[in-house]
Amino acid sequence: MEGTAMDYKAQVTNSILSVLNDELSSAEVYEKLAQPKSLSMGDLAFPAFSLAKVFHKAPNQIAADLVSKIDQTSYEKVEAKGAYINFFLDKGKFSGQVLTTIIEEGSTYGQNDNGKGGNVPIDMSSPNIAKPISMGHLRSTVIGNSIAKLLVKNGYHPIKDNHLGDWGTQFGKLIVAYKKWGNEDDVKRDPINNLVKYYVKFHKEDKEHPELDDEARETFKKLEDGNEEETELWKWFRRVSLESFNKIYDKLGVTFDTFNGEAFYNDKMDEGIQILKDKGLLVESQGAQVVKLDKYKLNPALILKSDGATLYITRDIATAIYRDRTYKPAMNLYVVGSEQTYYFKQLKAVLLEMGLQSAENLHHIPFGLITVNGKKLSTRSGRIILLDEVLDDAINLAKKQIEAKNPDLEDKDEVAKEVGVGAIIFGDLKNERTNNIDFVLEDQLKFEGETGPYVQYSHARAESILKKASSIDFHTTDKELDDPAAWETVTALNEFPHVVESACKDFEPSEVAKYSLKLAKAFNKYYAHSKVLVEDDKLGARLALVKSVSIVLKESLNLLGVKAPDAM
Asked: Which of 274, 295, 332, 347 has the largest CB neighbor count within 10 A?
């Protein structure tokens, strides 16, 4: 794997194979190697149990026999402990290779070419226009953005597609609400908050006046038919919504490659329906048109209602055909909440039945809910927490903490923004994405514990040490560091390429967030117990370690979409 400092599992595998006579294959030995619970027990351990039947001996005897035959010159030591063979790596040699690789490769450390440049559309964020971006939209946005960064690191070409909810009967409701209770000046002054106020009022009023729903359906039909007044209102709502959304995306540091919303596919649905008809897949059921999915053990997918009206799936079929044709995707990703899991199983099954080339590599990437005090957020009920306000609160709280800790810091406002916004993003991504999150702002902003500011502060500490040090040519200095106190940090640095690969494969940014916490903790522990800036023959090696930590923490945060300030 490109970017790996040293695959010491392969080295240990070869050492074991050299004293066996084909009793186990290389893959079997490699698979059985494990990291002991404590570094005092070695860096890798091989269990001899698997050889008991072959050698007809007790496993602890087998371990002792094999250790006596293993060439230990490239290790600090190899010892038998019970039924295990424990390998202790040569710390100086190993750290030299790890630190040399990181300093030479810089921010490209851990990069690979697994994706071979393949296109990967990512359906992400996808707010509904004329509604505010709430905390409920945070997860799809930041998970999708981090996955896109991981894809780049793994040699793919992501295409971030903000599939806006800009079509459907809710726009009939909104237009009716605006005409009844709206005011043009109010919308111009504060578009999103006023539009959502009308939408919420509609849902309160229609409980007592159900005829409003009929009026909304008729209004949406006019919009579908291209009626001028309804179309102009819809375009206006869409434009002011996007302007508002982009301010929030700018704060988050998230960009998109396309904003093709549902309306974009409105005139593209007939082709998908025709393919289903031509393949004999569309069948009538109680007046509606469905695709039977018995062979996938799924309920029939409803494609057209009995009145011929389309549904989400009709548009998603058109979207999939368009992406398939436009991007020829290596994968097609949908970062959408866990509650849509069954729906995406149906969509994938329908696309497979249609014979769509990219359907096999369609992946729904589900995630849990964000709750606040245990309550689900809902626009319709008016119980929403605006993401913009949360980000502003986080920035203000970060600024207060910086004022208290480092009042003379330059660029305080910019650092507060990087820390505050970074805390919100990291606070989301450190959780396995399928878990639910109950949001507490103050917990995210702590400079200690499992938070974004803790990792950022660790990076800033590394940069501070490097600034205090006399200048060193890292490319020529000796980097062999045999200090046992540094070992945990060195082995953590070596894991980064594997984490990059694994997190991409699992579509799981939390693996990177948890790794960054592990590296930051190891480094802070080392710094607390070691004098880095002592002028001796290992000063260069210690500073190379600090430089490597700075590089890898910054790149880890970058993969999460979080900035790494040099001072805090």
From this structure: 332
